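User: I'm putting together a teaching handout on how multi-component assemblies are represented. Below are the sequence lines for each component of a complex, exactly as they appear in our records. Could you produce the 3D structure of the whole assembly as C-alpha coordinates, so the students can see both representations side by side? Please keep the chain order the same as the input.
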Amino acid sequence: DTGVSQNPRHKITKRGQNVTFRCDPISEHNRLYWYRQTLGQGPEFLTYFQNEAQLEKSRLLSDRFSAERPKGSFSTLEIQRTEQGDSAMYLCASSPPEGISYNEQFFGPGTRLTVL
Amino acid sequence: GENVEQHPSTLSVQEGDSAVIKCTYSDSASNYFPWYKQELGKGPQLIIDIRSNVGEKKDQRIAVTLNKTAKHFSLHITETQPEDSAVYFCAARIYNAGGTSYGKLTFGQGTILTVHP
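Assistant: Of course. Below is the structure of the complete assembly, with chains in the same order as your input.
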Protein backbone atom coordinates (compact mmCIF):
# COMPACT_ATOMS: atom_id res chain seq x y z
CA ASP A 1 0.00 0.00 0.00
CA THR A 2 1.57 3.28 -1.08
CA GLY A 3 -0.91 5.60 0.64
CA VAL A 4 -0.44 7.71 3.75
CA SER A 5 -0.08 5.56 6.85
CA GLN A 6 -0.63 6.55 10.47
CA ASN A 7 0.21 4.77 13.69
CA PRO A 8 -1.26 3.88 16.01
CA ARG A 9 -4.81 3.73 14.67
CA HIS A 10 -6.28 4.00 18.14
CA LYS A 11 -4.87 5.35 21.38
CA ILE A 12 -6.54 5.41 24.78
CA THR A 13 -4.77 7.33 27.49
CA LYS A 14 -5.41 8.85 30.86
CA ARG A 15 -5.61 12.58 31.38
CA GLY A 16 -2.20 14.05 32.01
CA GLN A 17 -0.26 11.47 30.01
CA ASN A 18 1.82 12.25 26.93
CA VAL A 19 1.06 10.65 23.57
CA THR A 20 2.87 10.59 20.23
CA PHE A 21 1.47 9.79 16.81
CA ARG A 22 3.36 8.99 13.64
CA CYS A 23 2.57 9.77 10.02
CA ASP A 24 4.32 8.30 6.99
CA PRO A 25 3.40 10.28 3.87
CA ILE A 26 3.31 9.04 0.33
CA SER A 27 6.84 8.60 -0.96
CA GLU A 28 8.28 11.77 -2.53
CA HIS A 29 5.51 13.97 -1.13
CA ASN A 30 7.39 16.88 0.38
CA ARG A 31 4.36 18.63 1.87
CA LEU A 32 2.65 17.30 4.98
CA TYR A 33 -0.37 18.51 6.95
CA TRP A 34 -1.86 17.61 10.30
CA TYR A 35 -5.57 18.08 10.96
CA ARG A 36 -7.83 17.34 13.91
CA GLN A 37 -11.38 16.08 13.51
CA THR A 38 -13.89 15.95 16.33
CA LEU A 39 -17.09 13.94 16.15
CA GLY A 40 -19.58 15.34 13.66
CA GLN A 41 -17.24 18.04 12.38
CA GLY A 42 -14.95 18.56 9.44
CA PRO A 43 -11.17 18.36 9.83
CA GLU A 44 -9.44 21.47 11.24
CA PHE A 45 -5.94 22.45 10.20
CA LEU A 46 -3.21 22.13 12.83
CA THR A 47 0.16 22.50 11.14
CA TYR A 48 2.05 22.28 7.85
CA PHE A 49 5.53 21.04 6.89
CA GLN A 50 7.39 21.60 3.66
CA ASN A 51 10.23 19.10 3.73
CA GLU A 52 11.56 19.38 7.29
CA ALA A 53 10.48 22.97 7.84
CA GLN A 54 7.35 23.69 9.87
CA LEU A 55 5.98 26.69 8.00
CA GLU A 56 2.57 27.20 9.49
CA LYS A 57 0.80 26.48 12.77
CA SER A 58 -2.82 27.00 13.70
CA ARG A 59 -3.89 28.79 16.83
CA LEU A 60 -5.47 25.43 17.73
CA LEU A 61 -1.95 24.12 18.31
CA SER A 62 -1.42 25.02 21.95
CA ASP A 63 1.98 24.82 23.63
CA ARG A 64 1.13 21.27 24.72
CA PHE A 65 1.31 20.19 21.09
CA SER A 66 4.51 19.77 19.13
CA ALA A 67 5.12 18.38 15.68
CA GLU A 68 8.32 17.41 13.94
CA ARG A 69 9.46 16.14 10.60
CA PRO A 70 13.18 15.65 11.21
CA LYS A 71 14.32 14.32 7.85
CA GLY A 72 11.54 15.55 5.67
CA SER A 73 9.95 12.12 5.51
CA PHE A 74 7.78 10.85 8.40
CA SER A 75 6.29 13.23 10.94
CA THR A 76 5.35 12.94 14.59
CA LEU A 77 2.73 14.81 16.58
CA GLU A 78 3.12 14.83 20.35
CA ILE A 79 0.56 15.97 22.88
CA GLN A 80 1.81 16.57 26.39
CA ARG A 81 -0.36 16.51 29.51
CA THR A 82 -3.39 15.34 27.58
CA GLU A 83 -6.82 16.72 28.43
CA GLN A 84 -10.24 15.26 27.73
CA GLY A 85 -10.78 17.96 25.14
CA ASP A 86 -7.93 16.49 23.12
CA SER A 87 -10.05 13.46 22.30
CA ALA A 88 -10.42 13.49 18.53
CA MET A 89 -9.27 11.90 15.29
CA TYR A 90 -5.85 13.19 14.23
CA LEU A 91 -5.42 13.10 10.48
CA CYS A 92 -2.30 13.43 8.40
CA ALA A 93 -2.28 14.38 4.71
CA SER A 94 0.47 14.75 2.15
CA SER A 95 0.84 16.50 -1.21
CA PRO A 96 3.38 16.17 -4.02
CA PRO A 97 5.84 18.96 -4.85
CA GLU A 98 4.62 19.48 -8.37
CA GLY A 99 2.54 18.02 -11.17
CA ILE A 100 -1.14 17.71 -11.85
CA SER A 101 -1.83 16.55 -8.28
CA TYR A 102 -0.11 19.58 -6.75
CA ASN A 103 -3.24 20.87 -5.05
CA GLU A 104 -4.47 17.49 -3.84
CA GLN A 105 -4.13 16.36 -0.26
CA PHE A 106 -4.12 12.62 0.31
CA PHE A 107 -5.29 11.68 3.76
CA GLY A 108 -4.26 8.81 5.98
CA PRO A 109 -6.73 6.72 8.03
CA GLY A 110 -6.14 8.82 11.14
CA THR A 111 -5.33 8.10 14.77
CA ARG A 112 -8.29 8.16 17.11
CA LEU A 113 -7.33 9.48 20.53
CA THR A 114 -9.49 8.94 23.58
CA VAL A 115 -8.49 10.69 26.79
CA LEU A 116 -10.12 9.26 29.90
CA GLY B 1 -10.02 33.74 8.13
CA GLU B 2 -11.94 31.54 5.76
CA ASN B 3 -15.33 30.17 6.74
CA VAL B 4 -17.09 27.36 4.86
CA GLU B 5 -20.74 26.58 5.42
CA GLN B 6 -22.23 23.31 4.17
CA HIS B 7 -25.86 22.25 3.74
CA PRO B 8 -27.73 20.07 4.35
CA SER B 9 -26.27 18.29 7.35
CA THR B 10 -28.15 15.10 6.47
CA LEU B 11 -29.55 13.92 3.15
CA SER B 12 -31.60 10.80 2.51
CA VAL B 13 -32.40 9.65 -1.03
CA GLN B 14 -33.66 6.58 -2.82
CA GLU B 15 -31.29 4.59 -4.96
CA GLY B 16 -31.19 6.07 -8.45
CA ASP B 17 -32.14 9.57 -7.35
CA SER B 18 -29.80 12.57 -7.48
CA ALA B 19 -28.18 14.19 -4.47
CA VAL B 20 -27.02 17.80 -4.21
CA ILE B 21 -24.85 19.27 -1.45
CA LYS B 22 -24.12 22.98 -1.29
CA CYS B 23 -21.32 25.02 0.25
CA THR B 24 -20.55 28.70 0.60
CA TYR B 25 -17.19 30.27 1.40
CA SER B 26 -16.18 33.67 2.67
CA ASP B 27 -12.68 34.36 1.32
CA SER B 28 -12.87 35.64 -2.24
CA ALA B 29 -9.17 34.81 -2.68
CA SER B 30 -9.84 31.08 -2.38
CA ASN B 31 -9.15 29.33 -5.64
CA TYR B 32 -9.31 25.60 -5.03
CA PHE B 33 -12.35 23.64 -3.86
CA PRO B 34 -12.13 19.87 -3.24
CA TRP B 35 -14.82 17.46 -2.13
CA TYR B 36 -14.05 14.53 0.13
CA LYS B 37 -15.94 11.35 0.98
CA GLN B 38 -15.37 9.85 4.39
CA GLU B 39 -16.52 6.39 5.36
CA LEU B 40 -16.74 5.19 8.93
CA GLY B 41 -13.34 4.70 10.50
CA LYS B 42 -11.46 5.98 7.47
CA GLY B 43 -9.73 9.16 6.44
CA PRO B 44 -11.30 11.54 3.91
CA GLN B 45 -10.93 10.48 0.28
CA LEU B 46 -10.78 13.08 -2.49
CA ILE B 47 -13.56 12.45 -5.00
CA ILE B 48 -13.50 15.59 -7.16
CA ASP B 49 -12.09 19.10 -7.10
CA ILE B 50 -12.45 22.33 -9.02
CA ARG B 51 -10.27 25.35 -9.53
CA SER B 52 -11.59 28.88 -9.65
CA ASN B 53 -10.95 29.31 -13.37
CA VAL B 54 -13.51 26.60 -14.14
CA GLY B 55 -17.26 26.76 -13.64
CA GLU B 56 -18.07 23.08 -13.79
CA LYS B 57 -16.31 19.74 -13.72
CA LYS B 58 -17.73 16.28 -14.19
CA ASP B 59 -16.41 12.80 -13.50
CA GLN B 60 -18.86 10.03 -14.36
CA ARG B 61 -21.77 10.31 -11.87
CA ILE B 62 -20.19 13.16 -9.91
CA ALA B 63 -20.11 16.83 -10.87
CA VAL B 64 -19.13 20.04 -9.12
CA THR B 65 -20.23 23.55 -10.02
CA LEU B 66 -18.67 26.80 -8.85
CA ASN B 67 -20.13 30.29 -8.76
CA LYS B 68 -17.29 32.66 -7.83
CA THR B 69 -19.49 35.73 -7.78
CA ALA B 70 -21.84 34.24 -5.24
CA LYS B 71 -19.00 32.34 -3.54
CA HIS B 72 -20.73 29.02 -3.53
CA PHE B 73 -20.07 25.58 -4.98
CA SER B 74 -22.10 22.40 -5.14
CA LEU B 75 -21.63 18.66 -5.45
CA HIS B 76 -24.05 16.73 -7.65
CA ILE B 77 -24.27 12.94 -7.54
CA THR B 78 -26.54 11.31 -10.11
CA GLU B 79 -27.91 7.77 -10.15
CA THR B 80 -27.02 7.30 -6.50
CA GLN B 81 -26.10 3.85 -5.24
CA PRO B 82 -26.07 2.44 -1.69
CA GLU B 83 -22.26 2.51 -1.73
CA ASP B 84 -22.44 6.31 -2.09
CA SER B 85 -23.65 6.41 1.53
CA ALA B 86 -21.01 8.25 3.55
CA VAL B 87 -20.16 11.66 4.99
CA TYR B 88 -19.24 14.24 2.36
CA PHE B 89 -17.12 17.30 3.09
CA CYS B 90 -16.52 20.36 0.99
CA ALA B 91 -13.39 22.43 1.51
CA ALA B 92 -11.72 25.59 0.31
CA ARG B 93 -8.08 26.43 0.10
CA ILE B 94 -7.35 29.54 2.07
CA TYR B 95 -4.60 32.09 2.06
CA ASN B 96 -2.69 33.28 5.09
CA ALA B 97 -2.34 36.93 5.94
CA GLY B 98 0.82 37.29 3.84
CA GLY B 99 -1.06 36.42 0.69
CA THR B 100 0.75 33.14 0.15
CA SER B 101 -0.92 29.81 0.57
CA TYR B 102 0.61 26.65 1.85
CA GLY B 103 -2.45 24.75 0.76
CA LYS B 104 -4.24 24.34 4.06
CA LEU B 105 -7.91 23.57 3.67
CA THR B 106 -10.95 24.84 5.55
CA PHE B 107 -13.67 22.22 5.66
CA GLY B 108 -17.43 22.43 5.89
CA GLN B 109 -19.31 20.67 8.65
CA GLY B 110 -20.14 17.63 6.55
CA THR B 111 -23.26 16.03 5.05
CA ILE B 112 -24.35 12.54 6.01
CA LEU B 113 -25.69 11.00 2.81
CA THR B 114 -27.84 7.89 3.06
CA VAL B 115 -28.91 6.09 -0.10
CA HIS B 116 -31.77 3.65 0.48
CA PRO B 117 -31.93 0.56 -1.78
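A couple of points students might notice: Chain A has a mean pLDDT of 93. The first strand of chain A starts at residue 5 and ends at 7.
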